[in-house]
Amino acid sequence: MRWTLSIEIHEQRLRPRTASGDSFHQRRDTLNKEGTLAFRGRDVLYVVGDAMADSACCGVYGCRFAYIPGYVVDWKYRTNDDGLPVSSVEPVGHRRIREMLTVVLQDKLGVTQVQFG
Length: 117
What we know:
The protein has 117 residues and is mainly β. The chain has one domain. 13% of the residues lie in helices and 54% in strands. It is built from one helix and six strands; from the N terminus they run βββββαβ. It has one helix at 95-109; strands at residues 5-8, 27-39, 42-56, 59-79, 85-90, 113-116. Strands 1, 2, 3, 4, 5 and 6 form a six-stranded mixed sheet that branches. The longest helix is centred in the C-terminal third of the chain and has 15 residues, at 95-109.
């Protein structure tokens, strides 16, 4: 049996998040690119974003990250209530495949972190 899930990806609005109850500690993140990567005969859905903490413990800090929901099962097969596309994906479960995809996206997109759905 193959498990799939539907995923809705859309840009998040910039919004402050407190890190320690202090209003000066803020984190902002945005999603700025969505794409697919052909990998071993399957398409992998990924999203790239940027995050910044304007007052981390050691000063301003930022990073470029990627999020991989999984293998595309059904690409943009419907829209949600806001009219945004929804795709069906199968999570990437194998640890070695995750490691290989991490290296590929770090090299291709210059991201420092890769997370999986």
